[in-house]
Structure formats: structure tokens, C-alpha cells
Specification:
The structure is a homodimer. By secondary structure, chain A is α/β, with parallel strands linked by helices. Chain A has helices at 16-32, 47-55, 66-74, 89-99, 111-120, 146-158, 176-192, 205-208, 230-234, 266-269, 321-325; strands spanning 11-15, 36-37, 61-62, 79-82, 103-108, 128-134, 162-169, 200-203, 219-221, 245-256, 259-262, 280-282, 288-294, 297-302, 313-318, 330-335, 338-344. Chain A starts with 10 loop residues before the first strand and ends in an 8-residue tail after the last strand. Chains A, B: This is D-serine deaminase, pyridoxal phosphate-dependent.
Chain lengths: 352, 352
């Protein structure tokens, strides 16, 4: 069997035991709180893990792009949520084809998006579930008020080939309570208009752990929880020992006593730090931090007793694991030092 | 013939006339200054443009990864510079195979890297050209002093299957004069040791335009000059009208009067701003700037009279075009609104 030592660098390693423990821990938490789990596949982009998440008890999966959903449907996943405004003839036709073979739901935050959906989906026998996206503080997509949510929900309800599926939000980080209040108001306004709101979907790994039984949220879409990363560790979701994804890299240069250069740059680790002050941490080398990136080089600053040598291979915990998954064509599943399997990142780079 | 309107979004558009004008302009500049041009393919990752660059007068190309060089060699490119420390058996064997079929040169900044090269390349009849990488102020790879450069050059000269190829640097942005002085000193120290330095290679698009006849630099490795981007425009290399690469995107949401959301997020534009305060600019929509990115959403802030509508398609000039090329599997070559050809980004995502 292959060992990590046989792999060329840079490469993504996924510790299977850790990922499975992370799946189990989140599912147990959701079960305890009566919350349905609908994991976001953006983090792994792999049918392998999507199936494991379903097997552990998830009600379905979340994809962000139709191309991702098509890959997942091809692999046998049957319940897919696309929390996105799908616009334009090409995408609407693909969405219709997808809806013909698996259970799909989408979101909308405008009459324009609804118009396209209503024109495409016209069969009352198999209506498309449409949730209203709500901006509960994140400042991205979403209606701005409960009354706007009601207006859209009414339009969905009127369209013969659509069905009002509920509310969806991506809450601002750390502001779950604010989102909760917003959604509770909107649910009440919907009820006053005679519209039942059976599904309220929220997301974001860190805030999942704060969800309680009293929440109006019925379903959660965590993504990063399966692998975790330095950002999640900084948010207290787990420790470095829970991080399942690492980037294997080689020290290619050591120009000064405090500077070493890795063969993993922004093309491997991405420039997305999620606000952290640096780009990654080297496992087992305390005092070694990735403090700079160019496309093909990672600058490591060594402090204290930290030592590296040219040719040495190291494992980096990145700041944001989801964007790293998107940069590699394949990942290696590992158990300890053994490489169990190498998988293509099937849903990587799906743009449309 | 396809038009831009037929493409799904997000998508990369390359304006062929602009790219060809940028190639011609740089080649003319290099010719005027007696400088050899060896374009870095990292920006486009396409054999199509590499061949155009050679046809315009470039002496060869620059790749950063063996995987990129293999793609280019397969496509018929015959003179490839890999300014990187190649380490480890797997990569050295691939380098040897590559050297067997095209002209390859590499760099080294350490005895460790040299040891691997010397053990792999042993044929004095077909020596591998090795240049010494010099840290002239960038603070990345490279020897720290002229005496270190001489010591490495001596080792290369002694190895039977290697040949000392000269000096290579990637200068710190805007500090070309400093790099110039460093390299002149090193060249003199090499001459004093009886080592001729026939090739001195430098890089970086903005500083190329400052190179003069008096420079010690014999060869230049610009990358971004072919497409340009907002960073290059900020550096004065050209105007927005010279930028050949744009990202076609759809407005998917317009939650408030000053906020619109695009279907191009960090997965399409990358989080790499090269220090600019925002993430991209919308062509033909003055006052519309991409001020935030999540993976699949771009937040546009509208100021003044800037207007967008849901479903509208826009073209974004990104901050850093090279990293955008790496995120897409294909690019569309355009002339005006016409799509001339769609090409796979053949050297995209080559990690090793």
C-alpha cells in the first residue's frame, strides 16, 4: 500500500478517521437538537463524502452550482438543495432536467428570479420547491424584510409549477441570534398571510454548535465541519487535531535561518485567509507559520526553536479548507501514514 | 458563430486583439533594448498563447512547474525555463525525461538542490543548464550574497552533467535598481572566479518597462503583460482598455439600491487582490466595484449613478489575472462580441 512518502507534493491529504468523527459529531448534535442536517458539499466536492454524510443521517445535500448538483446526482445523491438564484435560459433548462431525476429545491430573493422559475416549471404535479432567501444580517443576497418575504412567498404559491418551500438564510458570522429573530418574525408574517413555513434553513459551521431546541431553524447546511481548518479552530469549533485536511508540501529553499520556502503557494493554499493574519500552520513544527504566499511559493517564518531542512516534507493546515479543495484535481484519503485511496475532486471548478 | 451572449456565466473572455497587441508591444520593447523575452506562461497556461509569444520573437518560455512544462513540450514548445528548485526523486525523473526531448534550464539556490540535480544529470554530452537564483530584495528564494552565488556556480561548474547557466532573480516590485546592482556585483565576483555569466534573467511585468540598454539583465520573464489586470493598470503598465482578460458574470440579486450580487465569487475571481482595496471593476458601469467576495458570490457596491438590473450580464476586470486563469477549465477567445474559439486551460492546476 502507498504511504504519504510516496506522494509527490503539493498534495491534499484527508484523514478519514477525523473526517468521519467530524461527520458523526455534527450529526449527533443535530439529532440531539431535532435539527435536520443538509451538508454543503462545497467543502469536499466529493460524492464519496456526500454519501457518507447521507449514511450518517443527513436529509440531503446542499450544492451551490448546478454543475455540482449534476455531479452529485450522477453519483446517486437524490435530494439536493441549491440555495441560489438560478437565472438565464441555459441554467433553467439544466435545473429542469435535474428536477426530472432527483428532488431539487432552490431559493429566490426577487420577482425576476421567480419569473424565470415560473416560466420554466409549469407542472403542478411535480412542483419545484422554492425557498425565499432572507438577508438576516450577512449583507449578501436576500430579501430585506419580512413583508418582502411574504410578497415573494405569495408569488411562489400562485405559480402553478412552483411550491413555497420555506425560508433560507446564511447568517452573519456570530450573529445567529439576530438571524433567529428575523426568521421568527418572517414566519409569523407568513402565518398571518396563511402561508405555512415548514422548512427554515440556516448555515455556517461555527454557529451550528450554538443552535438550540428553541430555534425556528429546522434544517442546517454546514460545510466546513467535515474537514475543519484554522479559521474553525480560531472560532473554537475544534482543535488542530480535528482538522482532516492538510496540504503535503516540500521545503524547496531555506535562504536564511528564519525563512524557509515551501512548494505550496496561493495556487495550493489560496489567498483566502478568512481574516486570519497568516496563511497556514505547519503540523509538528511549532513556531513555523506560513506568513506569505506567491503563486507557487509559501514563505515560512521560523521563530524560536523551529527548524526545517531543504527537502523535508511538511503538512500544512490551511486557513480555509473549502477553497483549497477547489484548487486540486485529486485528494488522497489517508489513515495515519497510509494512503487508502486517491479520488478525483469530481465537483471541482464547476462554474455554472 | 457564437456570441458572448450565448455563453453561460461565469466565464473567462480573452480579447484576442488586445492580447496580441500586448505581446507585440512587449516584444518591441525588448527588441529595442536588446533584451531576450522569455514569457512566463503562468498567466495564460495555454499552448495557444505560448506559440504566439514565440512567433512574435520570444526565445523560449518560462514555466513554474514540471507539469506545466510537460504540457507545453507536448504542444511543441522547445525551450523551457523552470526557475524553481526541483527536489525529490519523482520530480527529478520527470525533469530528466523532459530534458531528453526539449531544451530545459532550471535554477538552484542551495547545495541540497544541486546534489539532487548532479546525481540525476550525469551526461557531459547533454548537460542541464542550471542558473543560480539570487534574492535581490524580494525575500523569497535565492542566495543572499554574491559569494554564495559564486560558491554555487562553482559546484554547478564542477558537476559533470550540469552547466552553469547564469543568474536568475525575481526582483522586489519597484526595486529593479537594487536588483540591478546586486546582479552586477555577482557577475563581477563570478568573473573574478573565472566563471562567465552569459545569461542573467529577471522578471515581473511592471519593471520590464523600466529596463534600459545599460542593464546587466539579458533576458526577461514577464507573465501578466499578455493580459494585464487592475494591478498592472494601477502600476501604470496600461489602461483598462488594454486588459485582455475579463470575467463574464450575471447579476443574480439586487437586495438594496446600492448592493448587487454577481455569480462570480472567489472561486472565479480569487481572493488575491495584490494589495488593491477591492476585487474587480465592472466594464462600462462606472461607480460599480466588487467590494466583497464569498466563494460563489461577488458583492458589488454601486455609487453615484451606477445601475444594474437582475439578469444583466457584466464583464469584470480582475485584480490579478494569472490566478483567475488557474480557476477555470476553459477560456473563450473573443473579437468584439464574437466568440472565436473555446480552449481548455491545458496547463491549469498542475501542482507538481
Amino acid at each position: 500500500m502507498l504511504s504519504i512518502d510516496d506522494l509527490d507534493t503539493p498534495a491534499i491529504l484527508i484523514d478519514v478517521d477525523r473526517a468521519e468523527a467530524n461527520i458523526a459529531r455534527a450529526q449527533a448534535h443535530a439529532d440531539r437538537h431535532g435539527l435536520k442536517l443538509r451538508p454543503h458539499i462545497k467543502t469536499h466536492k466529493l460524492p464519496y463524502w456526500a454519501k457518507k454524510q447521507i449514511a450518517a443521517g443527513a436529509v440531503g445535500i446542499t450544492c451551490q452550482k448546478i454543475g455540482e448538483a449534476e455531479v452529485m446526482a450522477d453519483a446517486g445523491l437524490t435530494d439536493i438543495f441549491l440555495p441560489y438564484n438560478i437565472l438565464g435560459r441555459a441554467k433553467l433548462e439544466r435545473l429542469k432536467a435535474l428536477h426530472g431525476r432527483v428532488t431539487v429545491s432552490v431559493t429566490s430573493d426577487s420577482m425576476e428570479t421567480l419569473a424565470g422559475l415560473a416560466a420554466t416549471f409549469t407542472d403542478p404535479g411535480q412542483p419545484l420547491q422554492v425557498l425565499v432567501e432572507c438577508d438576516t444580517g450577512m449583507g449578501r443576497c436576500g430579501v430585506q424584510s419580512a413583508s418582502e418575504a411574504v410578497a415573494l412567498a405569495r408569488e411562489i404559491d400562485k405559480a402553478r409549477g412552483l411550491a413555497f418551500g420555506g425560508l433560507m438564510t446564511y447568517p452573519a458570522a456570530g450573529r445567529a441570534a439576530e438571524a433567529e429573530a428575523w426568521l421568527a418574525d418572517a414566519r409569523q408574517a407568513l402565518a398571518a398571510s396563511g402561508l405555512a413555513c415548514q422548512r427554515i434553513s440556516s448555515g455556517g459551521t461555527p454557529d451550528m454548535w450554538r443552535a438550540s431546541e428553541a430555534s425556528v431553524v429546522t434544517e442546517y447546511r454546514p460545510g466546513t465541519y467535515i474537514y475543519l481548518d484554522r479559521y474553525q479552530v480560531a472560532k473554537g469549533v475544534g482543535s488542530l487535531d480535528d482538522c482532516a485536511l492538510t496540504v503535503l508540501s516540500t521545503v524547496v529553499s531555506h535562504p536564511t535561518s528564519t525563512r524557509a520556502i515551501l512548494d505550496a503557494g496561493s495556487k495550493a493554499l489560496s489567498s483566502d485567509t478568512l481574516g486570519l493574519p497568516d496563511f497556514g500552520e505547519l503540523l509538528g513544527v511549532p513556531g513555523a507559520t506560513v506568513t506569505g504566499l506567491s503563486e507557487e511559493h509559501g514563505n515560512v517564518t521560523l521563530s524560536g526553536d523551529a527548524k526545517l531542512r531543504i527537502g523535508e516534507r511538511v503538512r500544512i493546515v490551511p486557513d480555509h479548507c473549502c477553497v483549497v479543495s477547489n484548487l486540486f484535481d485529486e485528494v488522497h484519503l489517508i489513515a495515519g501514514e497510509r494512503v487508502l485511496e486517491t479520488l478525483p475532486v469530481a465537483a471541482r471548478g464547476r462554474m455554472g
